Amino acid sequence: MPAGSSAATSPMNFPRPLATVDVVILTLGARGLRVLLVQRPGGGDEPFPKAWALPGGFVDVQKDADLQACALRKLHEKTAVRSTYLEQVGSWGARARDPRGWSITCVYFALLPQSALHIGKGGNAADVGWFDVEPDGTVPTAGPLAFDHERLLTAAWQRIQSKVEYTSLPAFLLSEPFTLPQLQQAYELVLGRELDRSAFRRRALSMPGFLREAGVLRTGAPRAPMGYELIDRQQPMVFPRAFEPRTTRD
Amino acid sequence: MPAGSSAATSPMNFPRPLATVDVVILTLGARGLRVLLVQRPGGGDEPFPKAWALPGGFVDVQKDADLQACALRKLHEKTAVRSTYLEQVGSWGARARDPRGWSITCVYFALLPQSALHIGKGGNAADVGWFDVEPDGTVPTAGPLAFDHERLLTAAWQRIQSKVEYTSLPAFLLSEPFTLPQLQQAYELVLGRELDRSAFRRRALSMPGFLREAGVLRTGAPRAPMGYELIDRQQPMVFPRAFEPRTTRD
DNA sequence: ATAATAGTGTCTTTTAGACAATATGTA
DNA sequence: TACATATTGTCTAAAAGACACTATTAT
User: Fold this and answer.
1) Which of B74, B85, B156, B187 is the least buried, fewest Cβ under 10 Å from its Cβ?
2) Could you tell me the domains of chain A?
3) Whole-structure pTM value
4) What is the Cα–Cα distance from A223 to B250, expressed in whole angstroms?
5) pLDDT, tens digit, for every residue of B23-71?
6) Cis before residue B177, ω within 30 degrees of 0?
């Protein structure tokens, strides 16, 4: 009867899984979302040499107070960005996902405005790059990703895709102040489809606690648009309805 | 500049966090959701002696192929339930959440129909109990929970509360076949408010891929109601609209 | 003035909430 | 028959999609 109660005797001596944090860092490109990937070192006994991978690494029990701090550290090492929207996607742990042994990775995604893009501030800029994410959540131009990072990226992508339908998530991809047409374009780029202007404005402006006017902006557009700021940069707004009633087909 | 690149030299020798899995096992009681808690052992050097806690424990790199398998093992040890809806809530990891050191816990919740309730099949039934979850996601009758389990339970509760508004999650709390009034009651118990019959039926019956008729049931009700089965027991259905437009106040 | 982009008004459609009405089984 | 529960029908209200219309500014 090995079930017993629990390993109360000396859990500290049990073999422990490896613990890592990976961050899906996303920003807005001309054709949609772009993801930051890092190239793994080529020499030594490192697994997946030269393959592109999500930025991340082992939890440092000295440096990191908690998982979120660890994710922020990874983010800052690659982008020099300190403050941004960060959301935990989930954790993947399995015996076989890392050749070095049973490992758990905790995955976050970060949404960055284009203005904050200073790659390589952390040092090695050569092995870092931005890649277009395809409509299915993959990155074919980067080749096969290291470990199970393809799966992790796709999971983050799907989380975002579904939340864009009923939250204000894309607002975190813009620098403030932004205009409503800019916000709508962010939605459309992430969704991969166009939205109706009038309905979009009504939805955004009628949501209490979402936007605050910040004066007219001179973007160079023929008519100067109103600028807006987020009232709450910590949490996306949740709309009671999705954009379009899900149809079974088509 | 201690940022450097990463600890590539010998990560295998790095101190590793503890890795555990905790499961919020929920079922339907007369007054709402009930959660299964276990009482921690009293003697020895175990932290939080005699306190109630979520069932869980260390990942066993020998037994567990992956995190989900680990969660299912915990579930089975306490309830003898094999198949059920299991969803990952998220992970909490911090230096201070366990007195024994930096630890990560991966939290799942499981929804069980009342029919499957056979506590203590795993051996020690004495230290296991069901507790009513209050409308704020706490369990005052169990006293202060061990570790940060209060926070974990509340997080699982909040996840469920929000998903009930726009998914078919409560269906997993029923044994099949069930009736529409039973399903509505499950919703009402979780939500803590009443729903309109007519609207509820329309919503449920008009969702494609949700329910399949399973013949009239003789529940003892004056009029025998139709029984239904889930078409997909793996994934809840997602409705395009929440039950009630979120109001700012009231 | 013209063009281009920002912003508004209005009609239709959809669907949820409210609630009355009907159906069907038990006592 | 009386009653309780299941199920349906109908009206109303709220909000999104569609799309035409107006406003503002650069050229």
Assistant:
1) B85
2) 18-164 (3.90.79.10), 169-230 (1.10.10.10)
3) 0.92
4) 40
5) 999 999 999 999 999 999 887 788 999 999 999 999 999 999 999 999 9
6) yes
For residue B77, what are its two tokens?
């040890």
Nucleotide nearest to B201 (CA to C1'): D7
Strand D reaches within 7 A of the A244 CB: yes
| pLDDT score recorded for residue B5 | 40
Overall size of chain A counted in residues:
250
Average pLDDT over residues A171-192: 97
Of all helices (H) and strands (E), which one includes residue B18?
strand B18-29
Cis bond leading into B170, ω under 30°?
A: no
Counts for chain B of helices (H) and strands (E), in that order: 4, 10
Q: How far is the CA of B183 from the C1' of C15 (A)?
A: 21
Which of A6, A17, A91 comes nearest B57 by C-beta?
A6
pLDDT score recorded for residue A124: 57
- B248 to chain A: which residues are within 8 Å by CB? 208-209
For residue A56 the two structure tokens come to 């991340």
DSSP structure string for A153-210: HHHHHHHHHHHHTTB-GGGGGSPSSEEHHHHHHHHHHHHTS---HHHHHHHHHHSTTT
Residues on chain B touching A166 (C-beta within 8 angstroms): 166
Helix axes B180-191, B149-164, angle to 10 degrees: 130
Task: Please report residues of A whose CB lies closer than 8 A to that of B58.
Answer: 6-7, 11, 14
Q: Work out the minimum CA distance from A191 to partner chain B, whole angstroms.
A: 16
Question: pLDDT tens for residues A75-117?
Answer: 999 888 888 999 999 999 999 999 999 999 999 999 999 876 6
Instruction: Name which of B16, B88, B240 is nearest A91 (Cβ-Cβ).
Output: B88
